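User: I'm putting together a small comparison set for a docking exercise, and I want a reference complex before I start. The sequence is below, and the ligand is zinc ion. Could you produce the 3D structure with the ligand included, as structure tokens?
Assistant: Of course. I'll restate your input first, then give the structure tokens for the complex.
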Amino acid sequence: MRAIRTRSQERIFNLLKTIKKGISAQDIYVELRNTNQSMGLATVYRSLEALKLEGIVQVRNLANGEALYSLAQQDKHHLTCLQCGVSIPIHQCPVHDLEEQLESSHKFKVFYHTLEFFGLCSQCQVNQAEKGCQ
Ligand SMILES: [Zn+2]
Ligand SMILES: [Zn+2]
């Protein structure tokens, strides 16, 4: 079952495909305007909402209340270093089985899940240890 997309949804979908990280609705609006594909901010929000319910766009809410949109990740997880910001992909998913269990026990269609690990990468740990010695 695949919903028919409007031209606005298609444009946003194509834009998100070219952007590797999350982007706010406001920035999507600006990006589209810069590439002569202008649409109103309300349309941007409406289209994002529709894409979200289709399961192909995911939203991540930051601590500052900003919502970042990106294409729904196909089960990719990362270790993110809080110091230098490096993002290390991990090639396994500890909750994959759980997801299937939940789908059947709750008759719930899971589109995606997120799982993030934050801390210090090995290089930053070394740097921090060196700083401590001085
Ligand atoms: Zn680091
Ligand atoms: Zn996963």
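The first helix runs from residue 7 to 18. Helices lie at 7-18, 25-34, 41-54, 96-106, 122-133.
User: Thanks, that's exactly what I needed.
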